[in-house]
Structure formats: C-alpha cells, structure tokens
Amino acid sequence: MTTATQTPATTLSDEMLERFRSRAAGYDRENKFFQEDFDELKEAGYLNLALPQEFGGPGLNVAEVGRQQRRLAYYAPSDAVAVNMHFYWTGMAADLYRAGDKSCEWVLEDAAKGEVFAAGHAERGNELVGLLSTAQATPENGGYRINAHKSFGTMTPVWTRLGFHAMDMTDPSAPKVVHGFATRDTEGIRIQENWDSLGMRATRSDDTIFENAFVPMERIARVVPPGAAGLDLFLLGVFAWADVGFSNVYYGVAERARDLAIEEVKNKTSLGISRGSLAYHAEFQHGVADLVLTLDPLAPHIDAVSNGYAAAVLNAPSWGPMDGAGWAAKIVSLKTNVTESAFRAVDKAVELAGGFGVSRHSELERLFRDSRMGKIHPANSMLTHELVSKITLGLDLDAQPRWG
User: Is residue 200 a contact partner of residue 374, using CB atoms and an 8 Å limit?
Assistant: First the structure.
C-alpha cells in the first residue's frame, strides 16, 4: 500500500513502465487483460494515489493523479484507462471527504483494504450517463433489487466493487436515480465475456448483468432526482475525475505518437532529398509543426481545469446554484477538446510515419486504434455541445422537450 512517505515517482518507476510497454503489444494482440501490469501497479500502491493520508494514501488531488495517469498512458494506454475507472470512485470519495461530506467514507475504507472499483454506468438507450438510466431499481426492505445490463465493465477480471446507477420508477410522477455499489459476490450478478474492441483491448471491459440482484442500503451512496437536478458533488466528482483522467490518458497517448513520428521523420531517407532525412522536406516539416501545434494547448487546458476544480471542490459546501453546472461545462469541454485533438495528432503522426506506421508490428498502429477510443467515452462530442451550450445560455438542462 502507498504511504505518505512514498512519492508518485517511486510508486511508478521507469523500470516498471518499461516492463509495461514491453507487454502492451502482446496484451493487445491477444485481447488479454493486463494482469501482470495490474499486479505490479497494485503492489506498488498506485491504485491508492487518491486516498487521503488518513486512509494510507498520499492524498493526491485530481490534477496530481491526472499527471501520473498521463505518464502511465505514455507507456501503457490500456493500463491507464482501466485504472482511471478505479480512480474516479476513490477520487470522488476523497473530494467529498475533504469537503466535509463523509457519506462515501466507506469507499475509501474499502479501497484502503485493497478492494478494486469499476464502473457500471454504460448502458444501451441512454447517453445521459449518470443522469438517467435504463436499469431498474426496485425498493425492497433494506435496499434495492437491481435489474440491468451494463456495458464496458472495465477491469472485469479484477474488480471487486462495481459502482452503478439505476432508476426507481415506483412513483412514475417522481422517479429517482439510485447510485450504489455492488460487490463481486452479489447473488444475481454475472459477467458476459464479449469484449473484443478496436482499441484499449487490454482493459477487458466485458458486460455485467444484474438479474434481480439485491444491494443493501449501506451500499447505496445516493438517491437523487433524475437529470441535472441530481448533479450534486457526488456525481459531479465522478464526471470530474473520469473526464480529467481520460483527458490525461489520451494526451499521454498522443505525446508518445508525436515522439515516435518525429524519430521516424528524422531517420527516413528519400532518393529525392539530397541533404539526408525527410526532416529537410518542407511538407514533412509542415506536418510536424501541425502535430506540435495541435498538442501544445492541451496540457495547459488540462492543468487549468484540473487545478481549478481541485481548489474549488474545497469550497463546494458554499457553492451557488450555478457553480456545479459551470464546472460540468468546463469538464466535458476539456474532455472533448483533448480527446479529439489527441486523435488528430495521432492521425498526423501515422501519416508522417508512412506505410510502416500502419503495420500491425508498429506501435503507432496500436496507438492510432487506442486514441480513437477517447472520442467514445462520455461525454461524447454531441452531448458536450448540448451541455455547454445550454449551460452557457442559462437554459434548464432538464426542460422538455430537450430541443426546440
């Protein structure tokens, strides 16, 4: 377990990262979970980075954990995406704790004992992840019966706690969204092993099926109104830690692609270039400049939003009605801007590398596929545009119809 005397640099050593990189191609090729990497990360205390010192961790905030995730993604993108799902629960709970809300203290206690958290949010027919749900939560004495089909259950082979949400429609005039955590041994939960994706293959994000699974009230974190009306610090914290994490991960992927492309250009020769490598070719110089110009604004954007949120959350109890919405707009804007820019940068890197860059033996080919997955994570571009425009215009996010 990480302690307050350890630093992120010693937790995630250069030697460890090089081992992760050496295994990444094999995990991807075999569609295999990154078990050896995960075991090393857990043993080193990496999963505890967000835990406050009172719970045995170094107490890193969302900006600080994000920078470590950026570094990990440079070597092993799937590893970073996968553990991001754990961080967005432990980080959210740590923010609540720092803000004086102890309602999710047990999340921190479980994580300190070695429990691994994963996300049970994705589901068909609902793009408003966390705000609405197609899953069913039926009240029962002492808890809820959950029926759901959750997709993208990242870290399926190792998670022991699955955060989920579902709708309680007992009173159709007053529906509620139930946010809770199921344990791995909950009766009625089964795994559907169907993960075989374009990129980020080592995450093993299989589906999770809830069939009349009972979750007791002590594992229910929130019961809130649907839509933006239920966007309290719990749910906003999930969005913040998830999307800041995704932004750092895909920026790290793009940084690696940039460095590979630059080396390729400097080493490629052409019979048409008398001075040596293609680094002297005007259009290759133009392409390298485009790649750098695409990436240069991303780190300042990530750092500004993540540092700002980490500071603001300490004052969350005194926030006004629009503070949370304002941060939601900044967070989804960041994620969309970074992941789309990162994909463009990786695409340019592959173009600069030429035909060998698309070989299955090329790291760039894998990074291209991995980077495409960033545009899929919520909030996608369409939802981001809706949220940012409505919040900026001061419109009611829950007004019906949604458009018009």
Answer: no
Q: Which of 99, 116, 133 is the last residue of a domain?
A: 116
As to burial, measured by CB atoms within 10 angstroms (0-12 exposed, 13-18 middle, 19+ buried), residue 286 is exposed
Q: How far apart are CA 76 and CA 368, in angstroms?
A: 13
Count of other CB atoms within 10 angstroms of residue 385: 14
Share of the chain above pLDDT 70, in %: 97
| Mean pLDDT confidence for 312-338 | 88
> Is the full-model pTM beyond 0.70?
yes
Is 47 found in the same domain as 77?
yes
Distance (Å, rounded) from C-alpha 349 to C-alpha 367? 10
- CA–CA separation, 165 vs 147, rounded Å? 11
Instruction: Answer yes or no: is pLDDT of 361 > 90.
Output: no
Residue 398 lies in a domain: no
Domain that holds residue 80: 8-116
